[in-house]
Specification:
Elements: H1 10-28, H2 36-54, H3 59-72, H4 78-81, H5 88-106, H6 108-120, H7 124-138, H8 145-163, H9 173-193, H10 201-212, H11 218-243, H12 252-265, H13 270-287, H14 289-292, H15 296-309, H16 315-320, H17 322-344, H18 346-354, H19 363-376, H20 384-401, H21 406-419, H22 430-435, H23 442-470
Helix pairs in contact: 1-2, 2-3, 2-17, 3-17, 5-10, 5-15, 5-17, 6-7, 6-8, 6-12, 7-8, 7-9, 7-11, 8-9, 9-11, 9-21, 10-17, 10-20, 10-21, 11-23, 13-15, 18-20, 19-20, 19-21, 20-21, 21-23
Length: about 475
């Protein structure tokens, strides 16, 4: 991102050029098989996605400009331009951000983290597992690895490291490096495990419904992820403990620190008790949605209503949650454009032309090759959501064209839409937070990230395929 104090004025122009040049080419020279309307819509969509990555302006501004261009050029009628705001997925994402604020505002998230440390942190490895377990418990309710990892788990890990006297570059820095790496790599692994643990996961479910005609319900998502996900949470900290061996072996001070913090926090407050009860009810509503038929979005909105009525959050807290409103504004038009491209056939045309090299291969090889490609292409993205918006529909269509069973194709790409975040120090919102602690050099961060990406491929495409076979997904 551009330094606010930069004296190099040409950088913003390069960013605008990256946005406008491919859009202008697509607008002027439609890809073969697309009519003018679909080509113009594709041009605006591509420009918007590039703008989300290059960020010549804020994401919301880019999307508002895109909506205006679509209406002024009569590419789409105004009512259809605004139709994304009626999408239930958008409102589920919006509500999930407000759940996240409730956990941080009440202090319940930190309390859960300290409880795990006080109870289980007997060795450096069990300390790492305690932090990973806290993240896992919070993941269904905090749909942002940035908010959950960067806002809840990272401050706990950093405080525990400081209590050990571990500072970057110091003689005991290895315990801090170990904790930072464990927390980071288990944060995005937990994001892969639940439909509601990453902001764009409901968007993936929407894409799966559009393009593969399968329903990724909350229960179906966790049923397929539970075995490979728990293996990841078990194996990755164990490997990191060997690759980055902590010099400090006695973790009694960490338990004492957590106990002191819990004493300072005092007993559960009224707001925390209400939040626990409400979120358990919301979880029950999500799990039983196939039986009662109420969409996940309205289960979440019922929970939000209860949070407001119980005054866990005030209305002013809702208005102050800028991330939720920001997501509402820029997610909705992107979903609208994706819907229109799908309806007009553009995604099918592009996927056939981009991935024709896989034609004739056995479907399982197609799935493995595209999953690995989808993972490592994230080196070029600074956002999981950006990659999902740009590439998930095309890769899903390519898998389907290669004969991959629809449910399997949708889930494999869904999981690697989260697991791809670990390969760089910029691939997701929590990465700069953890990397910015200074405990791990960039070269080591990338090296270990690559090693863990190989482990994830083995677990999710090895054990995962076996588990999904048992579940009847292929």
């Amino acid at each position: 991102m551009m330094d606010a104090g930069s004296s190099t004025p040409r950088i913003p122009w390069l960013r605008w050029a990256a946005v406008l040049i491919p859009a202008a080419l697509l607008w002027a020279i439609p890809p073969r098989g697309l009519d003018a309307q679909q080509a113009h819509l594709l041009a605006v969509f591509v420009a918007t996605i590039v703008a989300l990555v290059a960020q010549p302006v804020r994401m919301g501004a880019s999307v508002v400009v895109a909506m205006t261009v679509l209406a002024l050029t009569r590419t789409l009628p105004p009512a259809r331009v605004l139709s994304g705001f009626a999408n239930v997925t958008v409102w589920l994402i919006f509500t999930a951000f407000l759940f996240s604020r409730a956990f941080t505002a009440t202090g319940l998230g930190k309390r859960i983290g300290y409880l795990f440390i006080r109870r289980f942190a007997r060795t450096p490895l069990s300390l790492g597992y305690s932090l990973a377990a806290a993240d896992f418990v919070l993941a269904p309710f905090i749909p942002s690895d940035t908010a959950r990892g960067g806002g809840v788990i990272y401050p706990i890990a950093r405080s525990v490291a400081a209590d050990f006297g571990s500072e970057p570059g110091g003689p005991t820095g290895s315990i801090g490096a170990f904790l930072i790496l464990v927390c980071f790599h288990t944060t995005y692994a937990a994001s892969a495990m639940f439909l509601t643990s990453m902001a764009a996961n409901p968007l993936i479910a929407d894409f799966a419904r559009q393009f593969a005609h399968v329903e990724l319900t909350w229960t179906r998502w966790i049923a397929a992820s539970v075995v490979p996900g728990l293996l990841t949470l078990a194996i990755v900290p164990w490997l990191l403990e060997r690759w980055c061996r902590p010099a400090i072996r006695d973790t009694a001070s960490a338990r004492a620190f957590a106990a002191a913090e819990l004493v300072r926090m005092g007993p559960l407050s009224r707001r925390e008790k209400w939040l626990v009860a409400i979120m358990l009810a919301v979880m029950a509503g999500w799990v039983t949605s196939p039986w009662h038929g109420i969409p996940n979005t309205f289960v979440a909105l019922a929970g939000l209503s209860a949070i407001l009525l119980a005054r866990v959050l005030e209305w002013e807290d809702l208005l102050d949650e800028k991330k939720a409103w920001d997501a509402l504004i820029w997610f909705a038009p992107l979903i609208m454009m994706s819907d229109e491209l799908s309806r007009g056939g553009a995604v099918g045309v592009l996927s056939r032309s981009l991935f024709h090299a896989f034609a004739g291969l056995p479907w399982i090889l197609v799935a493995l090759a595209l999953a690995a490609t989808y993972l490592y292409i994230h080196y070029g993205f600074a956002s999981m959501t950006g990659q999902i918006m740009a590439l998930y529909p095309g890769f899903l269509a390519a898998m389907l064209a290669g004969g991959v069973p629809p449910m399997l194709a949708a889930l494999v790409l869904a999981y690697f839409s989260n697991l791809n975040a670990g390969i760089t120090h910029y691939g997701t919102g929590s990465a700069p937070v953890y990397f910015g602690s200074g405990y791990v050099r960039q070269a080591d961060w990338w090296r270990l990230g690559f090693y863990i990406s190989l482990v994830n491929l083995l677990i999710w495409l090895g054990v995962g395929f076996w588990w999904w076979k048992l579940l009847g997904l292929w």
